[in-house]
Design brief:
The radius of gyration is 16 Å and the shape is globular. It is of the alpha+beta class. The strands form 2 sheets. A 4-stranded antiparallel sheet has the order 2-3-1-4, with helices on both faces. A 4-stranded antiparallel sheet has the order 6-7-5-8. It contains 8 helices and 8 strands. Strand 2 (about 35-40) and strand 3 form a beta hairpin. It is about 40% helix and about 25% strand.
Length: about 180
């Protein structure tokens, strides 16, 4: 058995779209996934399953989600070892220690195109940072600005399929795996 992390994209946007985490765990159990557990109510699922291709797990989870909840949601899966590597590769440890809610990573299904990540620099405020590590996009958002142009610029069309989590969530998921 191997441990996996699954990240669901935007499950709480809009009226009637909230997903109860107990229902998400039940869906995982119905798929035969073992020991499913969630972290906060924003679509973070940790579970055990026989070692398999993550793309297969993503497809199975997405199909089950659509059947269970009546709509499609992109789901990004990483094995425990890859998640721990992602967390250890945080390029902004000092910023994360000061304000973990302002540091985020867009976890990508496929590595973000290098030229697209480079293009994000044009959207970054002077007190914001953006870089790519292993194909995932790391950002330090400004505390001074209520909204960042970076967030809108990191869309599926420009970057590919992915979903963002702040450092506090990344760290807590890593702790669940450890």
């Amino acid at each position: 058995m191997q441990t996996y992390v699954a990240l669901l994209y935007s499950i709480i946007l809009g009226e009637g779209r909230r997903v109860v985490m107990a229902d998400l765990k039940a869906m995982a159990e119905d798929l035969g996934l073992k020991n499913p557990r969630t972290l906060v109510a924003t679509g973070n699922l940790v579970f055990e399953a026989p070692a398999t291709d993550v793309a297969d797990l993503e497809q199975r989870l997405e199909a089950a989600f659509e059947k269970t909840f009546g709509r499609h949601v992109d789901i990004i899966v990483r094995g425990a070892e890859d998640w721990l590597k992602l967390a250890a590769g945080n390029p902004f440890p000092a910023d994360s220690a000061k304000a973990g809610d302002q540091v985020a990573v867009r976890v990508m299904r496929k590595p973000a195109p290098v030229e697209a990540v480079t293009g994000l620099q044009a959207y970054a405020g002077e007190d914001e940072k953006v870089t790519s590590v292993g194909g995932d996009i790391w950002v330090v958002f400004s505390r001074e600005r209520p909204s960042s142009r970076l967030l809108a610029a990191m869309n599926h069309k420009r970057m590919g399929t992915g979903t963002s989590r702040n450092w506090n969530t990344v760290r807590r998921l890593a702790e669940m795996l450890g």
